[in-house]
Design a protein that fits this description.
CATH architecture: Clam
CATH class: Mainly Beta
Helix content: 10-25%
Number of strands: 14
Radius of gyration: 18 Å
Distance between the termini: 32 Å
Number of domains: 1
């Protein structure tokens, strides 16, 4: 995998991990693979009205089991394989996260090179194979810390309360309600809820980076239950012309995650 894509790998995985929680007695939802499709359709006269934002979020809360399940987690470990769309690049991914906003990515490239990206809730950096540290600064740091929030997606749904439903849109084989909201001033995000299951099948977000703001798209499927919660085990990520697929192979909640994992390296500038 091209070295310049490594920061994309880490940021992509952060944005892609959208845990979806469900009541234990509910059957596992069958969610087919999704692909990008186009425009929002407004309903014609005589057709049943669109659900309100409150309706969508309440349905999601109902099918997910909601806050009580989410509140039971304080750490998480994920393991998976990241692959470019043309299969020319692969990377093994391990992610440790700890509430409220600490994350560590260990990215092992196909040639054995290991790169780490760390956020300790206040600062974030990338450690190269030689032990050097490259600090993330400015708007990119603000975005990175926000993404490291252990309750990031739950908080996003709370922010979405002030959003509005645009209409419906086809996302692969799904028909989805499109909910638009603003997580930050001058930024717009969207969540696409499957009209039948109520689960998200796509998210659109805007990321801050040194070279400017830009939109990323995530397509989610293969939901599986872990500890009473549903996670998308397969995700397709589109960012700046790059397309990646992440396949998770393992998720563990409430594993031991020591704070020492998030300490700045000895090579960090004093």
């Amino acid at each position: 995998m091209n070295r310049r894509l490594v920061p994309l790998v880490a940021s992509a995985v952060v944005g892609m991990l959208l845990p979806v929680y469900s009541v234990a007695q509910n059957p596992s939802p069958s969610v087919a693979p999704v692909t990008p499709v186009s425009s929002v359709t407004k309903l014609a006269p005589g057709v049943a009205p669109l659900p309100s934002t409150k309706d969508l979020l309440e349905k999601f809360e109902t099918v997910s089991g909601g806050h009580s399940v989410w509140a039971g987690f304080s750490t998480r470990y994920l393991k998976g394989i990241y692959q470019t769309e043309d299969a020319s690049g692969f990377a093994a991914i391990e992610i440790f996260s700890k509430a409220p906003n600490k994350t560590l990515f260990k990215i092992t490239l196909s040639n054995g090179v290991v790169i780490r990206e760390v956020c300790n809730g206040k600062i974030a950096w990338i450690e190269d194979p030689a032990g050097g540290m490259h600090e993330i600064t400015g708007p990119a740091l603000e975005s990175r810390i926000r993404q490291s929030n252990f309750n990031d997606r739950a908080d996003a749904l709370l922010m979405a309360v002030n959003g509005h439903v645009l209409g419906t849109e086809k996302v692969g084989v799904h028909t989805a309600y499109v909910l638009e909201f603003s997580p930050e001033k001058k930024l717009t995000s969207k969540i696409y809820f499957d009209t039948e299951s109520g689960f998200p099948v796509r998210t659109d977000d805007t990321l801050h980076r040194e070279d400017g703001d830009y939109k990323v798209e995530n397509y989610l499927d293969d939901y599986r239950e872990v500890d009473g919660a549903y996670f998308a085990f397969r995700m397709r990520h589109v960012e700046k012309g790059n397309v990646f697929t992440l396949r998770l192979t393992q998720i563990k909640n409430n594993v031991p995650v020591d704070d020492s994992m998030f300490l700045k390296p000895a090579s960090a500038p004093k």
